[in-house]
Fold these 4 entries.
Entry 1:
Amino acid sequence: MKDTAQLVAELSVLEKAALLSGENTWETRTIDRLSVPSIWMADGPHGIRRQVGSADHLGINGSELATCFPTSATVANTWDEELAAEIGAALGREASSQGVNVLLGPGLNIKRSPLGGRNFEYFSEDPELSGRLAAAYVRGIQSEGVATTPKHFAVNSQELRRMVTDSVVDERTLREIYLTAFEIVVREANPWAIMTSYNLINGTYAHENAHLLRDILRDEWGFDGAVITDWGGGNGAADGVRAGGTLEMPSPGFDSVRRIVAAVDSGELDEADLDARVSELLNLVARVTARAVRASVDQEAHHALARRAAAESAVLLRNDDALLPLASGTRVALIGDFAETPRYQGSGSSLVNPTRVTSLVDAIGATDLDLAGFARGCRRDGAADAQLVAEAVAAAKRADVAVLALGLPEIAESEGLDRSGLSLPDAQVQLLRAVAAANPRTVVVLSGGGPVAMPWLRDAQALVHGYLGGQAGAEGILDVLTGGVNPAGRLAETLPIALGDTPTVGRFPSTNRTAEYREGPFIGYRYYDTRGIEVTFPFGFGLSYTSFAYSDLSVSEERVTFTVTNTGETAGSDVAQVYVGKTGSSRVLRPSRELKGFAKVHLEPGQSREVTIELGERAFRFFDVESDAWQTEAGEYEIAVGPNVADLPLTAMVELDGTVASGALDSTLEWYRTGDIRNVPDDAFEALLGRRAPEAEWGSGRLGFNDPIDRLEVARSPLARLAFRIIDKRRRAAEAKGEPDLNILFMFNGPFRVISKMSGGLATQRLTEALLTLVNGQTFRGLGRVIAAFLRGRRAEKRTRDSFRAAAGNSSNRADGAGKEDD
């Protein structure tokens, strides 16, 4: 390729516009006459999903074999940046080996609620932990010459109607909670691309949000990469280019190309903005094609890494009477459907076709444990089965220890579907109680992408939460159960007692046009700790087979120094955590304390180590809306150190001069002072926003381009309402089987515009608008418009495609071959 500036100068407006949308589902367009190649993208937060044959973006069709590593929510429990970078490098090698140039991940949205259906793909409820681990992934992946797209930028918290919901959030909460993790990644790892979210942010779609993409991402943080839509996330093509959005995926045909060209011709879009976006795309192409030879992959080594990651991620939550680790020769009954058929990853676009998968039943033979028997115990679909329970009880009675594998079923967690609650299926809880009554020495191994309520906790003498451990998760869990690995996982999110205790209960997921972030910064431990609400297990918590003590704290504005000692008889690792909270009066609305640093420390028995954690610029800052800048409030701050947010044995004070004086909290924010945010009234929320809240309800009139398709239920046309009933019947049937129908979920959560955006040019925006005429009750007129728009669109597509091919010197359309998008 030539120099980027020279290439841009030689491109026509049509060619420039064409480069800003995909050729098909996964590839960008080529310019043969200038030797600009296409690049291939693939999903890959925890494993490569390069599809073979017919392509789709939801993970429905087959993909090449790849190592399925533990999901991000799982690896987050390691709090280990070095391990995260190692996993990232492995992902980069596998991507390179498969010819993938851009890996779509990692995901680092903040977990606003434990009900988020895609939380298994995200790291944490805390931006510091999320950002640092995601940055490590990015550094690892890009070290192999493969680009990353940290996602979904930004404020993407729910799956329900995710493509149409407007996230209404105040500027301080936006900057401090929902953007800080992305800021850390951009500043510390220099990602070559970033992926925008589907949702609107304060009234503007993320990919068209100039405040987000230009003011913050590019001008403030210095991002110099490409901004790519989530698949189907494009809205106004010219608006996206103007705001800083680079590439629209997958291919919308040439509809967006025509609209960009028309906007330049009319003066609506400055060609300089178009040139800037094309330069970003060409720079991305140059970066990811610089490596001449594909990487090679050692699948055995990657499986071993996946096993180590799973073991290091597992969190020991309960271990009464030191039941674990299990001694050599212990007679073990393995019980539970998950012991034979593990749940090791989530559903949706991140679905990996693993090189192999091990189960507890498969892997126990390689240990020194004595398998007394296996009993399925319960059905996967949650239906009660007395015979299976009786078999499990019999197996438990024959064993020294019962290891019971429980977990969330597939339908509970999926892209496109938020969770309905925090409970395990009743059949699993009843199984646990029956097994524990037969053999009190019961170990529960929990699988799932997030928190579960644990009213059954006392029935388990030991509890290990393995989250979603990837293809080698069972082996990693057995390493922990047998003591081959001393558990060092620490919770990256709070486990609440009940859904009713969570800060967004009753508001999540929002079914309205808007999702109001009325809780402000009080999410996760920030809420529970400030309000003094009891939880099952606090943020940062995890047990070990040894014990640790903290001493000798010394603090300054720049750093924290202390000593950690292994006071037990076994080598092990602890995660030392540093929290900062302002004392006394404050002009700023604040949680009581926030994580500002951490370090994983490995110690031999009796060993002590002095640990120093640097306090960077993020430790004391707040975003001051009035000055539109980061500031530090003068005053006294408490520095607290310990193994989790609820156990901080070391505290000290530090006095800061600050950049702004301390003062009293604005009286309009008094409602928030103590973190009492469960029922925030309108006037208090609007005081936090600094403006009137937008209309939340859906209108009752005509359905529009960006209304969700599931609103066909209330369409004026009886044909449209019939179509809704037919589609919804399919959705409910899939849920009854325990397997989400991802196509239906994507359709229902999406707006009408996806009809044109996801058709590869078969449908245009004009056709979608014609279809809406029908949906809104003008049946015959609408049918006529649909037919006319379809024929007109096909002619326009052919003309534009032929013009582009001629200009670009492209002899063939690669969309006719591999990677063709389904019609």
Entry 2:
Amino acid sequence: MGQAPEAATAPESGPAVSGPWAVPAPGDAPTAVDAGRELGALTSLQVLRALDSGPRGLTDAVADARLRECGENTLPARRSVPWVVRFLRSVRDPFTAVLLCLGLVSALVASWGTASVITALAVVSCVLRSTGEHRADRSMTALRELVATTATVLRRTGDDAAPVAREVPVDQLVPGDVIRLGPGDLVPADVRLLRAVGMSVNQAVLTGESAAVAKYAVDVPETPGGDAFEQAQLCFQGSSIASGSGSAVVVATGARTRFAAGQGAVGPRGPSSFDRSVQGISWILIRFMLLTPPLVLMANAALRGRGLETLPFAVAVAVGLTPEMLPVIVTSCLARGASLLARQHGVIVKRLPALHDLGALEVLCLDKTGTLTQDLPRVDRALDAEGRDDREVLHWAAVNAWWALQLADLPAPEVLDEALLDASDGEEFLPYDGIAALPFDPVRRIATAVVRGPGRLGVDTLVVKGAVENVLERCALDDAERERLLASAAVLARDGARLLAVATAERPARKRAYTVADERGLTFRGFVTLRDALVPSAAAALSALAGTGVAVKVVTGDHPGTAARVCQDLGLDPGKVLTARDIDALTDAELVDAGRHTVVFARCTPEHKARVVRALRADGRVCGFLGDGVNDLPALYAADVGICPRDAVDVAREGADVVLTEHAKDLSAVEHALAAGRHSSGNIATYLRITLSSNLGNVIAMLGAGLLLPFLPMLPVQVLVQNLCFDAAQLAFAYDRPSAGVLKRPSALRAPDFLRFITGFGALNAVADLATFAVLAYAVHGPGGPDSETVFHSGWFVENLLTQSLVMLLLRTGRRAAEDGRTSPVRWAAGALAAVGLLLPVSPLGPLLGMAALPGFSYPLLLVVLGLYAVGLAAARRRYDSRCTRPW
């Protein structure tokens, strides 16, 4: 693109030639932005010659040759990841890696049962995760198939044949094709306008600007070398025709479009909130597990003279500290939550950990258009020249809109005209006769309708509406009055309104046609202000999000006044608005501080949006971004969780973690997703707190008992069976219902919080275990005791499972979760675990596991210990809740 017209070209009927549309050598391709600037410096004739094309389009033979050389007009597609590859990637999960390392160590010390169980749990976790993400990928493939479309292109069967307009799939377009565009059409490639009538283009997906931009086919560029999006003669893939029609020549397709450049400019995704949480908790576990076996070996060697024969016990203790079911529980919670979201609310979670990030969300950044406001404006007020409400101003504006539509034979009203017609009575244009119309012109920036009123024979009325400056300069006003009206318009614009100026003039009826020269000496009537219509559910959704502890930030490319007014109308205090210029003036540290108090960021480019998101994350907050355009891609990747609607552009859907398929960008769908995320995260957090604190207490007690007893406090096989029973019971957490308090606040898995919790409650658990040790020592070695290691092992086995049952009930989510009347799978699981603990030693399996029945008098003693432990546990929980600022 941008090649000089005299460059050598091949005849149309010959083979494809090298040219600006050909696939360049690696490293030589200009960027889409550079290409846009080069095109901006050429006339339409020069562009056609450089593309070896013409107003009649390409022949079929040339188009086929270029298609083979350039490839299809599709974006670089993300290949679908096979299920096997997803399974292997799941192995890299830190929790799974920890388990596999423990399984390897267990195998090295010939503890085959432990190694087999650990490996099986790791495999189950990987299968669950890879299956869930593979199912989400299939759903995304089905969505991609819904956006296939066609384009109207001029093609010829031969050099001398007449061009014929035909519909072809957009992926068959090639550079040099001449296409036709009309209202509602998507621009299928980067194009240069050859002809345009009243055309305006919506570029929101590329620039974030909600207002349509005027486009027209200038032959000599007005601002060569400027921003490609500011070139009136250029339209880009991904934008849509809001009004008007025209023809254009395709200048770039596929990977060379500005659309693709926006996708390619996105860097790799950084670690999300879930990734950081997993890493922090994994390192806590790794430190404990690396420290435990050496301590066991050294203590037994120093105090008991035992050698490597205690290695299997040391490994069993380390395994006992590990939450073996963690990958399975995490994956089950996330997969179940994602499945329910997809079925009940039409929300696709493409990456399972993103569900946790939704639950942990503290800040949600979103654009204004389509989320808080509808894409259509609505009339707000009609004001006369003195600023007073005047219905007659709206009357004349609606008359202009109606007759301009009828007389200019436009296919559909432009969005502003449609708003005027909707706000009018609907019958006020009927008494008039339409005489002529001068449609909106992007250069004049006004539209004129000539009508004749009832009983006004011989008099025509010119009704003019359009941009304030352009209408006022055609009115019969002195300089002072014109300046006053411009100042009034500026005040209205600062309040976030779109403005239309309305003027009229009376002319003697005549037979000759009206021209733009007649648009002089007008009488100014007033202003019509329009605002974007609010999404009906937006205010309630914002209030609901605020009630769940999520701060909303509006990050938009729109005018700051418009964005601030929308926030005010929705009950969201905008405070001080930061613009792109303000953001550029701030350092990263200053932007982090400003982000704490700023609600609206306006006039933002894609880079600004991403920088705002990174600043919010740098402040330690979990941040999500809701967007739908190419200009949102950097922010979608910069956020902990990227969210987009079903009707977003392809690359946004590919880059997002969560896709809203049924509610578009309705914030109520986000609210459902947040609740599901907190549900899953709450269950995961509960499992981690209960398991880690219980396991840590058992390990401390085992270490202490191992140093005081002349024998091992529990056999390795008993440790393994105890862990299996506890782990199986904890599967119930994947199906538990957290208390209402959990769903009211963000639920991030924060490693420091977990460390404080598990050390405190783990120490309390260890005290209960050591008290049990004293009771068992008395029961076994006291008067009338059996003096048997087997009985001691059995007693400790029973006590451990009973204490773990108590922990599952008393440390469930919610302060009163154990006392409420709801049926919970955790209650059943805790009851089953206690029953196993009591019955297994006296069952036929007891002798096989090295256990025997306990003396009858030991049960009351154990009951006393358990009662005291329950009281202490409840008191410690109440104290923890009163001090803890973060909910469960």
Entry 3:
Amino acid sequence: MTDEQPAHRYTAALAGRIERRWQDHWEQHGTYHAPNPVGPLAGPVPEDKLFVQDMFPYPSGAGLHVGHPLGFIGTDVFARYHRMNGRNVLHTMGFDAFGLPAEQYAVQTGQHPRKTTEDNIQTYLRQIRRLGLGHDERRRISTIDPEYYRWTQWIFLKIFHSWYDPAAGKARPISDLEAQFTSGERATPDGRPWAGLTAGERQAVLNEHRLVYLSDAPVNWVPGLGTVVSNEEVTADGRSERGNFPVFRRNLRQWMMRITAYADRLIDDLDRLDWPDKVKAMQRNWIGRSHGARVRFTVGDPQDADVEVFTTRPDTLFGATYLVLAPEHPLVDAITAPAWPSDVDGRWTGGADTPAAAVAAYRRTASTKSDLDRQENKEKTGVFTGAHATNPVNGARIPVFIADYVLMGYGTGAIMAVPGQDQRDWDFATEFGLPVVRTVAPPEDFDGEAFTGDGPAVNSGFLDGLGIAEAKKAIIAWLTEHDHGHGTIQYKLRDWLFSRQRYWGEPFPVVYDEDGTAIALPESMLPVALPEVDDYSPRTFDPEDADTVPSPPLSRATDWVEVELDLGDGPKTYRRDTNTMPNWAGSCWYQLRYVDPTDQDRFCAPENERYWLGPQSPGDPGGVDLYIGGVEHAVLHLLYARFWQKVLYDLGEVSGVEPYRRLFNQGYIQAYAYTDERGVYVNAGEVVEEGGKFFFDGKEVRREYGKMGKSLRNVVTPDEMCEAYGADTFRLYEMSMGPMEVSRPWATKDVVGAQRFLQRLWRNLVDEETGALRVTDAEPDEATLRLLHKTIAGVHDDYANLRYNTAGAKLIELNNHVTKSFPDGAPRLVAEAVVQMLAPLCPHVAEELWQRLGGAESLAHGPFPSADERYLVEDTVEYPIQVNGKVRGRVTVPAGAGQDEVKAAALAEEKVAVLVGSGAPRKVIVVPGRLVNIVL
């Protein structure tokens, strides 16, 4: 050691030794093991429990950077605080390990994705262990473990064997529906008795009701990748996010989940959840419940077809001057005329010789655009089908177009266009020279285009003069009476596309017979394990060839695909499904397996599920007590998990209707990146600031603010921070940077502030030269006791409400007071309380100091100090004194002083008395407990 470095100073090296020792201690003693009521993890369980959960991480090969652990540390602090206060806390972490990145890496290297994923998990575990996260490691799970995805497949089968009964408002076993058909309580679609249907016909009827079903669904097909991609993986210009290939909308036979059956419950139950309002609004908008009407338009002369539209504004029906179908609408071919009318407008034909040619060309162009691009594109395009429809309310003959601004994913895939009241319809009508009829009178000073405001109905026959609400009621009654439509509720939510043409995912627990009928496998045959294959990539095609057919990697595992099974009627040859489940599947239910990860007979024992996740009081939806993660999962993951939970609840498998009782979205740690004159990113760690400018290798560079990533050369890893400062310093800095829910920039140079606080705290309790304890048995003075108990009360409240930055600030203030007031050593009463309060934020150094203070047990289970109410009552109150609006002095009075006493004290204050002089002030206002305002 040098003369400048005392032997027992709290340095990064000493912190590292302390941290490794306590991490080993916690692991050896099972410090964070949370007992279950029953099963292999059973033990004495207190009634007061807490289940804290992080959103499922994906084990990236790049490992963690400092932005990743923000939420993990936040949940750890919360869990530690409650554990110290006597609660049985379940906190663990597993891995959402299926997915595209591992499969891509396998394609590039030929290495099995399981090998790379499991290697990544080990890296991840090493990193999070170094951070001191208090996880129950017995409960770790990974979605790629066959013993985990066995139960994912089991849940799929439970949903497959279920139907949604609208009368009961819940899912029921499909066997109940079959019993209704058998008894005659429910009629078959064609009226024949159930016994008169063949086995195949009976299955076809049941399949129309199942919550999981096969459908020719429109998907985003990418021939250049050889796979289907989700809407979120398509860029605004209709290309794949990965590879930048053209994306085509086409129909493929896929597994679907009937999430739409739960649309109302998914919206209504949001009111029962303690979630951010922003997330609730995002879910409501995604589901998109709209009240309106369905209206039937007859198309053709004579009538060829009925086209049904959904509108939220049936009161504008008199203003419908044309009809528009989505290019994918199933009736397009049927209504398209064989030739153009003699008076066709040249703008309507797309330059084609026939309507069929125009429609085919337009459909191909539309198939290359994403839904987002189609919705947001200001340029309106379309072609005339050559057909006309009849407006049922006035008999008007109106042209029928196809246009890409209408989507099959919402409503019926067809709209009645009312350009007078809808801006998109106005833009289209203007482009194609179509008439505009206003049906709502705008104000006299209105000089816009489409009018979307309120007003009386005009040009609308029997509706004229009515307000919008009254007109809606009247037109819906008319449509119903004349059999042209009816009032209804519509949703934007579509059924969940549940198939992927990829290898690295959960296989479907189904087989197909020689007729192509899907047959669910019995539970005894689970798990259906992924086979070994030599090539993990799907077959790719010419990127521009939209007519190609997917060939998933599993289709090449012929020995696995073709299988002989005895499913109860003798051995037969079947074909397995070569698609896999989406990566959402494993994360839909993982909170349930955390509860009971070792149960071999059930996905979760009911006693354990009720204890950790069940409702706590009437009206409580149940679920995880605190779920923390990024807002990027506000819709899909949370919506899918809620859907699965509700199905399992309906079937009696779980006790709560919701998976996550309370949700908290943490902010992000962002970072500065720097580019040189070429626009090339340079190493952010080597950039220096001089005079407000930034330089790399002596040359000025440009600074930008945003994400942290390898490509931006601005990554800082927690390993680096732990090595340079210690894990506790890193934890404290991340939690002190600002409120948990707010994003903030990373600044390595500021980490030293957290380190200096811990060094001062250590120095107050430990002699840096000898290592001896610097604690006295002296009784703290009144001021110290007041500050101590005020801090205890404040830190309690801050920890309970995830305000870790203010908790840290209070501890710093208290420690500064100790430093100044007790140079010869901290009073034991204060020292113990400070260490206890520090433990959730900085568990390693707190454990070390607690042990040195004589603590015989780990501080992980407490105690946590309690505030003495006597010291929270203020004896005096300080009043700022404003004279003509400016603070001119302050006065301290007894806490119970009346207004007259406060007024007299304020006027007697020396500086104020000089300003007032010998005269009387015009007005003296006392705001109790806050200020005195004197007007001269």
Entry 4:
Amino acid sequence: MTECIHCSTPLEKSQVESGFCCTGCEFVHGLIHEEGLQNFYDLKQEERLSPLNDQPFQEYDFSWLGEEVELLDKDVGDGGRCEMDLSLQGVSCVGCIWLVERLFTRHSGSLSCDISPATGAMRLAWKAGQFQMLDFAHELQKFGYIIGRPRDASHKNEELKKLGHKLGICGAFALNAMGFSLPRYLGMPADFMFAGIFELITMLSATLAMLVGGSWFIQRAVQSLRAGILHMDTPIALGVSLAYLGSIAGWLWKHEGLLYFDFVAIFIFLMLGGRWLQTAAVERNRNRLLEQTPVPRSLVRVPEGDAIALVDLKSGDRYALPAGQTTPVSSMMAEGEADFSLEWINGEPDPCHHQTGTHVPAGAIKLSQASITLTAEENWSNSMLAQLLREGESSTRSPVLEKILKIYLTVVLILGFGGGLAWLLSGADFPTAMQVTISVFVISCPCALGVALPLADDMASSAMRSLGVFIRKPAFWSRIRQIKSIFFDKTGTLTLDLPELTETASLENLNEESARVLATLCAKSRHPLSRSLLKHLGLKGQRLIDPNLEIHEVPGLGSWLSGGSGVRWSLGKCGWGGMDETQVTATSAGCELRRNGEPVATFTFQECLRPDTAETIASLAGKNVFILSGDQNERVQAISNSLGVATEHVHAGLSPGDKARLVGEIDPDHALFLGDGANDSLAFDAANMSGAVAGRGLLESKSDFYFLSSGLRFLPQMFTLADRHALAVRSVFIFSLIYNFAAVAVCLWGLMNPLLAAILMPLSSLVSLTLAASILSKNKCLTKAGATSIAITPSPTYDIT
């Protein structure tokens, strides 16, 4: 399988020749070699990184970082030691840590850099007044790493932290219980002088394990029963509770046949280990991206200049909106003019020009650098964006599993109590009958399932991570198999984030001066066409950017700069001479680079599907495929015709509410919705499951999974993997059924004892683990689909700023 030279992501067919999955990876690969940092690849080895796409070319706002560093430097004094906790997106291996540390130490004033690859937490130390933090942040971005604010401790997964503590403590108790039970299994006489002490230590170890770890399962089982739900915690809690109570009775009555204290402690430890594995895998994926949002946390009031918290924003408030930020509420343009992207609202990629007195909807992203003042027309709590940001409820129930557990628990209770009653009726004494009952409950504890199923989940999730897909929610693999209908958003989901240059000759034919000016004009622009040009210029373009040249923006037309000797360069809509600010109608699609008003190069763009999209859709023949878009009908139909999606399954010009309504009407219980913008949020809530394009900072937090891959070919592989996962689960379940049937028969015959149970428990778990691993290890052999990048109709006129 051919992989990306930089990130090791499997390549589509159309990408094999270049050797890179995206322009971002190609750029960073060249930068690493140019800077002499090739050791990164030796340290990275086979570790897969996240595809970079256009991340190195984006314009990130690190002003908050500069302000915090300035305050720290002032507090400490020149030359003093400053420290700051931050988050870093993109680190995943020792090679990443080495590269970031090497880049950090190259800056004057740097002291220490500590990074956790698991959580992305980073702690920096530097000499106050001697370290340029913003330069370091921008340099890291070029290499594919993004600095963000430290994750709020209240947002960390407390469950994972508690599980880790409980796991460590219960591990010690399990070792104690096992160690002090071993002499009894080896034939230690009951009248041995230390026998009572050993039993006491074993009992206390099991008791503490119940209090620390067993209580966690019992509490969750009680909560689920109150909610009318059955899950794996219920049989675990029942088995371990009855085993412990029976062991207490055996300890008080001095009946060795009831002493399962070591089993209780070890069982709790193993179950906590399995649950920790599941929770840690989900948490790793959640921590993969920074906790960022395109909506500003606070706004600057105009003209007072004080900050307005987002939750306090009221109708009538006047506020300033920085470039790259999202309009939080429906507003009126009070002063100035600027270009906005409405892609997240209606799915249309075309930027819109707004002047004083025009209405700007909530969710519009400001592209221009120009200063503007907006007047809020509604409170934040009532805005459409606030509603879209609210996380909807996502069901994690599995009706099939609940039904199986109900039957399982019923059978175990009947066999346990029925077997004990049968022995009493046959003339056996009460301790003997109780031994039969307790042994049934002990041997029926779902130890094998509790260990093997988390392993199966982790192996399946790891296979998806290798394809750039990250699972965020538990019970994902059982729920994904229920999907029968797949709903796609168009812009940014089926298509690439940025319009593609139709031909590269226009760039390749530029002389060095023209290329330098073009790269400089594009560097500070957030317009999609500028970002696309900068991406195509690659490493060469980054080297050509001249930070000393001042860029002047003309909203609705483009931008210009003075290149010296009275030469004026401009980049803007076709037909704009670049010499004045008179608004003109574009003569054709795309944009032009001009020198003193004379055309130098014309660039045309087209909307392109993601690689392999057509083949991906074709391979989903067993699913109902729908396209729901807010974009114009002509564009959406062009996409659907290219993909062979039935006309009746294609809907254009939809509002966020329309998308949610259609999902609810068509197939809400078996629907998977894939999207990337705010206008997809309500549809996420309406669908049974959801997947988000990563990097937008909005939908990842409410999706079941997000993906960083440039293509969509992971979808058919995800369903294939879900079937394989189900096969592994069924195989483990069948083995557990056979094992339990045989072991319970031994219990009912009165032949089970603590020693035999101590042997059978790890053996059954080992067989279950081997069974699940052998089936899911074939994930590496999943076939790689071909790739095709399909060009759609040329894009309409873009107003470039």
